[in-house]
Design a protein that fits this description.
Distance between the termini: 57 Å
Number of helices: 12
Order of helices and strands: HHHHEHEHEHEEHEEHEEEHEEEHEEEHEE
Structural class: alpha+beta
Helix content: 40-55%
Radius of gyration: 27 Å
Shape: elongated
């Protein structure tokens, strides 16, 4: 949730943020009103409770002949205290509901607008050109006997697939390369749960506008995660962290699940937009003052991966209306996909400032000894979708695919993926 102090002292910043997101500005005024009602209800309850405590002492000290009348008054006061407590609790819940509907405050410099209003920060690498008609990743996957879409559909339905042979090995190679790079950068490797409680899913901000993307197991009241960010954000919920030695950094490897609601007709061919995939997610807990620098560090790691794999890519500053609930700023890194003649998102990194930490009550101890919400950031370092760009970028006329040199040690030295006999 957003900082209540910011709501009281600088509501205009929240109004500007809502405008940039193309989101309802009136939510800010509703939150201000709910905060005022909450504080008034708390004050009324505490005042009555103090009155009740003082009255109780006077009853105890009163002469016996007066106590009967005073006890009746005490009972009446007790009923008023209970009612005030009920009203205070209701006001707290209403405030939590209203302010919980406000997305994170966007950072200065984030482009205003929706999905199409991003700003391209840079383009890197050489866009591949071919002297033959390039095949898409589906055709290449079939030639290499690496991707089996038909049997994926037979077994599980649309948007499922099998990776087999060199396809399975290539995915593992990409993931292990990412893991080694994360380890070298000081991240602790984690194999995370893929089922989480509603409190954790909500705390990370995934049960708002994107709730229809999430698979829910209603009988168990658990959710399947679409990213290990969710489990890693919940890992330190209700804790006070020691950041005196620097940020806490985790690299979560997990299977991820997304319903892809609302995407019917989009990217139905191949493995670009699927219901299940593998992902290695970086997650950082940092002092809020260092969050911007940490964000740049996560982005640098992502760019280093794409460069090492020989992929042409661009970095975009995502517009406010496309950030999602928790992010205050997000950079997408999009690789060139030759057969689509376009850049497609392979990875993103988000600075969530203190938004998730407030919802999950994750704090750190400041130099003064007081506690304050920590900042959280996330960024994907590898995922199944990367196969698309790698296969299409490094293909040859006969359908073979040159293995990027950086991946060869993870494939037993294999330098060329050749069509199956």
């Amino acid at each position: 949730m957003i900082d209540p102090q910011l709501l009281r002292e600088n509501p205009d910043s929240l109004r500007r943020s809502q405008e940039a997101r193309r989101a309802p500005v009136e939510l800010v005024d509703e939150a201000i009103a709910a905060d005022q009602a909450r504080r008034e209800a708390i004050t009324a309850f505490e005042s009555l409770r103090a009155e009740q405590n003082a009255f109780g002492k006077s009853v105890a000290a009163a002469p016996a002949e007066e106590k009967a009348a005073l006890v009746a008054q005490a009972q009446e006061l007790s009923a008023r205290v209970k009612q005030a407590q009920h009203e205070s609790t209701a006001a707290e819940e209403e405030f939590a509901r209203v302010v919980g509907g406000l997305p994170n405050l966007v950072l200065d410099g984030v482009p205003a607008g929706g999905e199409a209003d991003f700003v391209t920060l840079r383009e890197e690498g050489t866009v591949p050109r071919f002297d033959f008609e390039p095949r898409d990743h589906v055709e290449l996957g079939e030639l290499l006997d690496a991707i089996d879409l038909q049997r994926g559909v037979k077994v599980s339905g649309s948007r499922f697939y099998f990776l087999k042979g060199v396809g399975a090995r290539l995915e593992l190679a990409i993931m292990n390369l990412a893991l080694d790079r994360a380890l070298a950068a000081g991240f602790t490797p984690m194999i995370t749960p893929t089922l989480v409680t509603p409190e954790v899913m909500s705390g990370t901000g995934f049960l708002g506008e994107h709730a229809d993307e999430v698979y829910r197991l209603r009988d168990d009241d658990l959710y399947l995660t679409g990213t290990s960010e969710v489990a890693l954000a919940g890992y330190h919920a209700d804790e006070i962290l020691d950041l005196s030695g620097g940020p806490l950094r985790y690299a979560g490897w997990s299977t991820c699940y997304r319903r892809e609601a609302g995407s019917y007709g989009k990217d139905t061919r191949g493995i670009i937009r699927v219901h299940q995939f593998q992902k290695l997610e970086m997650f950082s807990y940092v002092d809020p003052e260092h969050a911007v620098a940490e964000h740049e560090a996560l982005l640098a790691l992502q760019e280093g991966m794409l460069s090492a794999l020989g992929l042409a890519y661009r970095v975009i500053d995502v517009a406010a209306g496309d950030l999602g609930t928790s992010a205050a700023r997000k950079f997408d890194v999009e690789a060139w996909v030759p057969t689509q003649n376009a850049y497609r998102e392979l990875t993103s990194t988000s600075n969530c400032t203190t938004f998730q930490a407030r919802r999950l009550d994750t704090r750190y101890r400041t130099e003064s000894g007081k506690t304050a919400p920590v900042a959280t950031l996330n960024g994907t370092l590898a995922t199944t979708r990367w196969l698309v760009a790698i296969l299409e970028t490094h293909q040859q006329a006969d359908g073979s695919v040159v293995v990027p040199e950086v991946l060869r040690p993870y494939l037993g030295g294999l330098a060329l993926l050749e069509p199956a006999a």
